[in-house]
Amino acid sequence: MTNNTIKAAFLAGIMGIALPAMATDTVTDPDMEAAVVESCEYDLSFDRSLVDFDGVVAPTVRYVSLTNGTVGTDRDCSLPMKQVKLTHMGQGYGSEAYSFEVVNGALDDNVLSEGETAVFKITMTPDSDDALASYNKTDLWILAKGTKDDGSVTWVKAKTKLHATEIAEYDASCTYGLSFDEVTYSFGALTEGSDAIKTPVLTNTGTCPVEVRQEYISGAETEGYTLEGGMGQGSIILPGEQVDYTVTFAPASADEQVTYNNTDIFVHTFAVSSGFARIAPLDSVKASANLNGELAN
């Protein structure tokens, strides 16, 4: 296309005049060629997928690096940070034991340039008041804003898992045991609409504490039973301490079954040291008692 043709097209565009179709010149002016812009092949990643604090009993520091490894570009492929935070999921887990900061200034402008690395200092501080401080479902989460060739947004993500378990070595003086005051609780044969109640008592027969994990009724014939009382997940049962439960048996005539014997009251706990710290490796301490009942004809 000649310079005169270009000028005519420009003026026509301003004035809103439609020009007839013109033949394309076979010779291309190098100065008029559009610049080639390649795609950003985004690569945002930490140098490790897991930052392990396992076994710490005091504030501990670990370092992890985040790199914008985007390659093969002919334009700016910097990544503005939209989210840099700690996330967690699951009951009994949390991010409150962790804190972080970027120590090399890479994110001072909240942007990680192509080829640049940000160094994170992560501090884990166990909670001395938490008898079972476990923080195994926490992530350092990054969300960055990338740009496609057409100008639209593409989200670029990275994360590394943080793993920590407050533990204690075995105390040779510790023994662990749990037991109910009866092996079997028999409710007898009940008619429709009636119920019977038993009050099982659980005792920590060991010399060190245990921490409650689960309290429930288990088995193949649980429909007629309900459980109340107990201490709840996360509670500590001290040596010699007793825990009261209430089990109600109320069979229904709509039930197909007549006997309710393959059922237990079940308590699952974790072993805890005399200093109320987790035992390594994690030990379970359990107790159960059978529940028997029938629907009378």
**Helix vs. strand class:** mainly beta
Output the CATH homologous superfamily of the largest domain: Immunoglobulins
Question: How many domains comprise the coordinates?
Answer: 3
Order of helices and strands: HEEEEEEEEEEEEEEEEEEEEE
Give the termini distance in whole angstroms: 101 Å
Task: List the strand order in the largest sheet.
Answer: 2-9-8-4-6
Continuous helix count: 1
CATH architecture of the largest domain: Sandwich
What integer value in Å does the Rg equal? 34 Å
Biggest sheet features: 5 strands, mixed
What does this structure look like?
The chain has one helix spanning 3-15, and strands spanning 44-46, 50-52, 60-68, 79-88, 98-102, 111-112, 117-124, 134-147, 153-165, 167-168, 178-180, 184-190, 196-198, 201-204, 210-219, 225-229, 236-237, 242-249, 263-271, 278-279, 284-295. The chain has 3 domains: 3-32, no CATH class; 44-168, Immunoglobulin-like (Sandwich); 178-295, Immunoglobulin-like (Sandwich). Residues 1-37 and 129-133 have low confidence and may be disordered. 4% of the residues lie in helices and 45% in strands. Strand 8 (134-147) and strand 9 (153-165) form a beta hairpin. The chain starts with a helix and ends with a strand. It is mostly beta strands.
